[in-house]
Automatic annotation (TrEMBL), chain A:
Name under which the protein is recorded: Menaquinol:cytochrome c reductase iron-sulfur subunit
PROSITE patterns tied to this protein: RIESKE, TAT
Self-association and partners: The main subunits of the menaquinol:cytochrome c complex are a Rieske-type iron-sulfur protein (QcrA), a cytochrome b (QcrB) and a cytochrome c (QcrC).
Statement: the UniProt record of this protein carries the keyword Disulfide bond: yes
Automatic annotation (TrEMBL), chain B:
Name of the protein in question: DUF2487 domain-containing protein
InterPro entries xref list: DUF2487
Source species: Ornithinibacillus halophilus
Length: 170, 152
């Protein structure tokens, strides 16, 4: 046994080590591009943080309709089902708009044409906050920025909503 | 807003916008075994209801911790105690105080209460999480919300 071991010459030893180390380095360099190339395949087919809100895209009209859905949320101590809502409609450019019903003033729930006095507007019952149809706050009413807008996706003809995005003030 | 730090900080910043307090009024007892299911279920529903109303009108309404009392206690005494809560609440400029309850025995003392008593017929269900229950609660919330708004 000991005789066989001595057969590994200095040259061979260095060759093996260098190949090994070189191999590791090459693998290290290659791993990121490979990972990037196959990453989309690894992603689950469901659309991540987006939730199916149970509304077919073909049913969306220019009239804002309220949709309600639930998501599971872990929030510090509590794990709970949180109910979410949005006002969904198509704007003039045939683009889907999903607006958060949360008033940007103090968080009451606004509704489309919530006041008979103000047709074609979103209305907040708490302090008469008002928004145009595209969610822009009407100057002179308490809210200081437009209603948040949900990210949306369409898959198999169904509407999926993600996170609500804040938009700049008017 | 609810009785939690984050909400209260918002409340403190915009005190002038808050003029309404909601007090859930909830009985408690462990003495009558037969009533336990009913009492706990009603208490749960009341808490959900109060939270949902608060969510709907959070920018103008402060939901304070529930007023709990022993079910079979003397209501005369309870009226005094609940009015002492009102006395403290009114150290702040609140115009409307609503007591929410499923317990009909308060109805008789309504006039002695320093606030509006909203007695609701109890909503009973075997499964609080059922869709039926959800739509029932949503419906109730909408109507109570409308009632509260009519006072504004």
């Amino acid at each position: 046994m000991s005789e066989e071991k001595q057969q590994v010459s200095r040259r061979q030893f260095l060759n093996y080590t260098l190949t090994g180390v070189g191999g590791f380095m090459a693998a290290g360099l290659l791993i990121s591009p490979i990972r990037m190339a196959i990453d989309p395949v690894l992603k689950p087919s469901s659309v991540g943080d987006y939730a199916n809100v149970g509304l077919a895209v073909e049913d969306i009209t220019t009239e804002p309709t309220r949709v309600d859905w639930k998501i599971d949320q872990v929030d510090g101590w509590y794990e709970s089902e949180v109910s979410k809502a949005a006002w969904v409609f198509k704007n003039e450019d045939d683009e889907i708009m999903a607006l958060s019903p949360t008033c940007t003033h103090l968080g009451c729930v606004v509704s489309w044409e919530g006041s008979e006095k103000y047709p074609n507007e979103f209305f907040c019952p708490c302090h008469d906050g008002r928004y145009y149809k595209d969610g822009t706050n009407i100057e002179g009413t308490p809210p200081t920025r437009p209603l948040d807008r949900f990210e949306h996706k369409v898959e198999n003809g169904m509407l999926y909503l993600g996170n609500a995005q804040e938009r700049g003030g008017a | 807003m609810r009785w939690v730090k984050d909400d209260i900080q918002t409340y403190k910043k915009g005190k002038e916008y808050f003029d309404t307090v909601i007090v859930p009024v909830i009985p408690f007892h462990l003495s009558q075994d037969a009533e336990l299911d009913k009492s706990t279920s009603l208490s749960e529903v009341m808490n959900i209801l109060a939270h949902e109303i608060e969510k709907e009108l959070s920018g103008r309404v402060l939901l304070i911790p529930g007023y709990h009392y022993i079910k079979q206690s003397d209501k005369e005494e309870e009226v005094k105690r609940i009015n002492s809560w009102v006395e403290d609440i009114q150290k702040q400029p609140f115009n409307h105080i609503f007591f929410l309850t499923f317990d009909p025995s308060w109805k008789k003392y309504e006039r002695e209460l320093e606030g509006n008593l909203l007695w609701l017929p109890g909503i009973q269900s075997d499964n609080i999480h059922s869709d039926e229950m959800h739509s029932m609660i949503r419906n109730q919330v909408a109507q109570i919300g409308e009632l509260i708004r009519s006072y504004w």
